[in-house]
Design a protein that fits this description.
258 residues, alpha/beta, 9 strands, binds NADPH dihydro-nicotinamide-adenine-dinucleotide phosphate
């Protein structure tokens, strides 16, 4: 895990990855380059890890130091070790229907739906959000699973009506409780990717999702909580990708299907 930030949420997430990796026996090293690291140094480190035969998978943690762009730096991660699908080549391969590692959060969304037996083929999925790391790859994976996919974003007209058409609704916006209960089709499967920190009024903060949980619970057929839900599954997907990458590099099987 390559990190170059003093961000506390990021540090917490990296510790969670290290702990989870330890539990399943994956050796996990944190390469902390510090918040002042120049982009060139981060890129060089990613290149050397890409070439290192002892390393099966690489994650570049965000946020990055000012000026550095994830998509620029992540292009230094070889796709076969790109555990979080951050290299634009990985997303391109995914869009082309070629084997690739999908971003772990996107993978987590689809795994949760599959695990709970939510039928995907032929059903209408609405993904709210079109970022490189979440919205777009989620849409690609759902398309591969034969959903009819709509991608909504900040310029979408009448978002509540678009959401009400969804059998499967994925919220990846970053706006606390934006998706209300009456935006949800009765019985829909709702996956809340959002992680938003809001003040509780007593000087503390707490995490909420992009979906108004209590309202949605009364309508949805399936609903993921925040915290919980997609967050822990993202870490599980990172570990799963790492195991598949290690097998791949030992020639145990072909470039893995996502
Ligand atoms: P981005 O900010 O990169 O993207 C947000 C998307 O939401 C954009 O496409 C934006 O549209 C869209 N959007 C913003 N406002 C609205 C609106 N009012 N109506 C409709 N669409 C809107 O965020 P990320 O994709 O990186 O993350 C989304 C959320 O998921 C965040 O809360 C983040 O913390 C969380 N997250 C959770 C992870 C997990 O493991 N659970 C991992 C990664 C992220 P436009 O493109 O038009 O600007």
């Amino acid at each position: 895990v390559v990190t170059a930030t003093a961000d506390e949420s990021s540090a917490w997430y990296v510790r969670s990855i290290v702990t989870a990796a330890g539990k399943v026996g994956i050796a996990c090293e944190v390469v902390d380059l510090g918040p002042e690291a120049p982009a060139a140094e981060i890129r060089e480190r990613l290149e050397s890890l890409s070439a290192d035969g002892q390393v099966s998978g690489i994650i570049l943690q965000t946020p990055l130091p000012g000026g550095a762009k994830l998509e620029d730096l992540a292009s230094a991660i070889v796709p076969a070790k790109d555990m979080d699908g951050a290299n634009p080549l990985s997303l391109g391969r995914l869009a082309a229907g070629l084997p690739a590692f999908a971003p772990a959060t996107a993978e987590a969304v689809v795994r949760i739906l599959e695990h709970h037996g939510v039928e995907l083929a032929g059903r209408h999925a609405v993904v709210v959000g079109r970022s490189m790391l979440v919205g777009r790859p989620v849409a690609q994976l759902l398309l591969q699973a034969d959903c009819t996919v709509t991608i909504a974003h900040s310029r979408t007209r009448d978002l509540p009506a678009v959401c009400r058409g969804a059998d499967i609704l994925v919220a990846a916006v970053g706006r606390p409780r934006m998706i209300r209960g009456d935006w949800i089709k009765p019985g829909a499967a709702v996956i809340d990717v959002g992680i938003n920190r809001i003040p509780t009024g007593d000087g503390r903060t707490r995490l909420v999702g992009d979906v108004a949980f209590a309202e949605a619970l009364a309508v949805a057929g399936h609903l993921t909580p925040v915290p919980g839900g997609v967050g822990p599954m993202t870490i599980a997907s990172l570990l799963g990708n790492t195991v598949r990458a290690a097998s791949l590099q030992r020639g145990a099987f072909e470039f893995p299907a996502t």
